[in-house]
Amino acid sequence: MEDLEQFRLDVREWLEANCPESQRQPMTPEEQYWGGRRGEFPSEDARRWFERMRDKGWTAPEWPTEYGGGGLTALEGRVLKEEMKRIHARTPLYGIGIWMLGPAVLEYGNKEQKEQHIRAIVNGETRWAQGYSEPGAGSDLASLQCKAEDKGDHFLVNGSKIWTTAADRCDWIFCLVRTNPNVKKQEGISFLLIDMDDPGVSTTPIALISGESEFCQTFFDDVKVPKENLVAELNKGWSVAKALLVHERKLMAEMGSDSPRHILVPNMAAHEYLEFENGKIVDARLRSDLVDYDMQMQAVALTHFRTFEEKSAGIRSAAPMVMKYVGTEAEKTKSELLLAIMGSRGLGWEGDEFNAQEIDTVRLWAMSKAMTIAGGSSEIQLNLIAKNVLELPQS
Amino acid sequence: MALVLNEEQRLLQDTARDFLTSNAPVEALRMLRDNNDAVGYSGQLWQQMADMGWASIILPEAYGGLDFGFVGLGVILEESGRTLTASPLFASAVVGASALLLGGSEAHKQTLLPAIASGKLTLALALEESHHHRPTHIATTAEKQGDSFLLNGRKRFVLDGHSADKLIVVARSSGAESDNQGLSLFLVDRTTSGVTCQRTVLMDSRNASNIQFENVVVPATDLLGDADEGWKILEPLLDRGRVAIAAEMMGYSLEAFDRTVAYLKEREQFGALIGSFQALQHRKAHMQSELELCRSVLLQALSAVDDSPEDLPMLASLAKTKLNELVKLVTNEAVQMHGGIGVTDELEIGFFLKRARVAIQIFGDTGYHKDRYATLCGY
Ligand SMILES: Cc1cc2nc3c(=O)[nH]c(=O)nc-3n(C[C@H](O)[C@H](O)[C@H](O)COP(=O)(O)OP(=O)(O)OC[C@H]3O[C@@H](n4cnc5c(N)ncnc54)[C@H](O)[C@@H]3O)c2cc1C
Ligand SMILES: Cc1cc2nc3c(=O)[nH]c(=O)nc-3n(C[C@H](O)[C@H](O)[C@H](O)COP(=O)(O)OP(=O)(O)OC[C@H]3O[C@@H](n4cnc5c(N)ncnc54)[C@H](O)[C@@H]3O)c2cc1C
Fold first, then answer.
1. ipTM of the predicted structure?
2. At B249, which CATH number?
3. E strand intervals along B202-279
4. What homologous superfamily does CATH list for A128-231?
5. Hey, which of A340, B29, B160, B334 would disulfide with B256, CB 3.0 to 4.6 Å?
6. Chain B residues with beta carbon closer than 8 angstroms to that of A310
């Protein structure tokens, strides 16, 4: 514990000395740095901050140092997070590589794959896309059809993926592909890493209700993928896929309590947009909704702490299983609450009549609808809780 | 702050569960009810609980206590919630003992706390005056007369009031009716002349009384804390009580929930176990999520009593609200998912349903605590 306190002091000192003032300010979505070949720094300070963090391995603080990670323990990782939060230091690098693929390759990849991909992720050199969903395979992911045929020294990939976040800006994509159609559906799936510059890979953006085109349909047309890009054994991709989904759900569960953006929180919004009398919000309905939300969020935050403490103590509980559902539903509630609090100022789409924060809030409201669908919908989460936690009979 | 139980607390939990399920199951409450038991709990059982140290779990060792803190207490309360065990644990060993710890003179502590610890003495808090929890709305008067006070007024919903040896009476010694200034707390023997106690029959088959105080003379030495400054004791006292009853409510919720899950795995309709119907699965899974959130909130609130009292007001209101909502949802759904048998007296689920409604009213319902939390949040 003493060591941890010393570590905290060292981290604090280092951050104080190395995090530029401009990188301690709230950030807009455009200011996030996602790395990759097409990645651009929003400013020189952002570059400097990223490079300093990268050199310490703190773009991926808990990954092993031999592949460029920071080598921190979970507790140290939490201290770093807390200290960054304390001075509002921006996250220097975002990405599915850091959040999902890296942990999966560290667990399931071979030595060569780790050499090739982990350091590149830490260094922000590659940006990754997730090729899971297909037009015919969403919640029922295991029914996927995109196929990879064994051609001796390579796989030949044909098919398409959909809802691929940022595919048009990514360098690599990890895909679940069908390698055996004649067995139980989960047992004929493999996990492939595909370079998106390879001939035959193409993407078409899809516009969303938030006005962004966050994701794409991704097509694979006779794409030749080297054999060494197979992660884990042939037809064992489903285990990798599930492990990765655990990371994805954890991430989504924490998005609300750990938001990178400077966004309006309902309590602040209430002071800005609502009428008060004797220190109380006049509109009783909204006041009551606001308490419900604040209480729920405090409960969610405490449960994140609890799962962390349980993990450190080696105790298993059902808490991690419910967090994706609870966290993303709370985000939706929050967005609806913000709109209600803002009244007609919470309807602005663009133009000078509304400030940037108002428009951002509205766009995020539209995005929040996606959070209970992506990464396994709320209904799927409830199915999983019923099956794996409550062990209810399956029909 | 610890959001996980330590080894010692887990052991305590096992011991409590073993003891309560064999010595004080729900069936015991049914018998107390059906026999119209005059006390409303088994004195012999309470003695056994005290002998195991449960009456002194939060008391410092200096007063014969175990000094396990509120997290340890929470474990026992939760288990006694699972079995709906009727005992003075909450009213006396938690609320009564806390009042003495917070406001008692050294003489009070030296004489009374060991007696509570041994199970020989029971206390009850005489606070409420209307049918809603309004702890500052006190009309009961305390008039200073020389070296004593004269109490006049009427209290309701006094938990264990008819069986407690001593009452802690909240009275107004100055100030206007809803001021938090001007309250004073007194220790009064229940048998003092001028005290009349009328037991009420509530849906939960437990014990609460209406108590009348008519020119009751209380020596100034039985004032807890300073005159007019009772709120300084009462507020933290209520918060401790809220967190404690929340722990008990966690027990009701878990038990009603678990029993229903078990039923869903054994009852067949339409040629299938009803637990395989998604309409029921999703509701159960949602409740499991709320249970997980409540678990964290409860542990944090319990440990705040021991470690960070400055956080307690907010956490106590959070815990009471979340548990109020949880226990209401879970008990309603437990009845519903049992179908016709769920509304029978034979099935014990009904006991949980009814006890939950009483607990929801203890020391503040959901509306009360949401309002308080909002105020603490600055809106
Ligand atoms: C913002 C966003 C980003 C995404 N990014 C990616 C990405 O980068 N890569 C990727 O591969 N995918 C991505 N996805 C896709 C996402 O994983 C799928 O949308 C999700 O799995 C749901 O599949 P679907 O859209 O086909 O809906 P469907 O599966 O068709 O579901 C339709 C409705 O039916 C319900 N339903 C389905 N099955 C059941 C059941 N058994 N019980 C009860 N209800 C059920 C669902 O809950 C939903 O309400 C993204 C999605 C979004 C919204
Ligand atoms: C006060 C009262 C009076 C009654 N009077 C009469 C009477 O006069 N005459 C008479 O014949 N009957 C009477 N009944 C019986 C009543 O019709 C049954 O209780 C009712 O049909 C439910 O059946 P069950 O109790 O066996 O519950 P179950 O069918 O076992 O249901 C248990 C739970 O499972 C749920 N469930 C069952 N099937 C499904 C499904 N496919 N999908 C989702 N959920 C499901 C139910 O909604 C319930 O929550 C009475 C019941 C009550 C409570």
1. 0.96
2. 1.20.140.10
3. 207-219, 223-224, 268-269, 272-273
4. Butyryl-CoA Dehydrogenase, subunit A, domain 2 (2.40.110.10)
5. B334
6. 3-4
